[in-house]
């Protein structure tokens, strides 16, 4: 048994002049027709999004807008917070509601580092290079 699949997206645009003059603006094409096609038998989600990004660019969207759209899809309010956290963890991002916890963890880590830098008698440890310069 053979499986064959194709994903095809068509984008058609037609420009109509709003002025009373006949003809078109010199920089505009009166019509544009695009067909994007990709074999879809083994298309993974990354390839699928790259395909749709190509379509979006052809429609006039820029890279930043496409990236924002993908993030908006991943972090929309109708998505589960659990899945958002999984995506955020995979890309080393922090959700807004987790910032306070992360800030508190950083403060604890800084305090622990300060405690470790102090010697047994409460003196501050220095680098060997600093000690060598002081002894000269």
Question: Describe it for me?
Answer:
By secondary structure, this protein is of the alpha+beta class. It is 46% helix and 13% strand. The protein has one domain (6-111). It has helices at 45-58, 63-74, 81-90, 99-117, 128-135; strands spanning 6-14, 31-39. The radius of gyration is 29 Å and the shape is elongated. The N and C termini lie far apart (83 Å).
Distance between the termini: 83 Å
Let me know the number of strands.
2
Radius of gyration: 29 Å
Tell me the structural class.
alpha+beta
Instruction: Tally the helices.
Output: 5
Whole-number tally of structural domains: 1
List keywords for this structure.
136 residues, alpha+beta, two-stranded antiparallel ribbon, 2 strands, 46% helix, elongated
Helix and strand layout, with pairings?
Blueprint: E1 6-14, E2 31-39, H1 45-58, H2 63-74, H3 81-90, H4 99-117, H5 128-135
Antiparallel strand pairs: 1-2
Could you provide a short overview of the structure?
With 136 residues, the chain is α+β, with helices and mostly antiparallel strands. It has helices spanning 45-58, 63-74, 81-90, 99-117, 128-135; strands at residues 6-14, 31-39. It starts with 5 loop residues before the first strand and ends with a helix.
């Amino acid at each position: 048994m053979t499986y064959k699949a194709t994903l095809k997206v068509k984008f058609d645009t037609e420009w109509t002049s709003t002025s009373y003059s006949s003809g078109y603006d010199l920089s505009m094409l009166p019509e544009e027709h695009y067909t994007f096609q990709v074999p879809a038998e083994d298309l993974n989600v990354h390839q699928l999004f790259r395909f749709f990004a190509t379509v979006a660019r052809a429609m006039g969207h820029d890279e930043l807008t496409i990236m924002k759209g993908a993030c908006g899809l991943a972090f929309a309010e109708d998505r589960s917070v659990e899945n958002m956290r999984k995506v955020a963890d995979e890309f080393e991002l922090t959700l807004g509601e987790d910032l306070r916890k992360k800030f508190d963890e950083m403060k604890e880590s800084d305090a622990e580092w300060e405690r470790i830098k102090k010697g047994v008698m409460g003196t501050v440890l220095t680098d060997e290079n600093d000690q060598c310069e002081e002894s000269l």
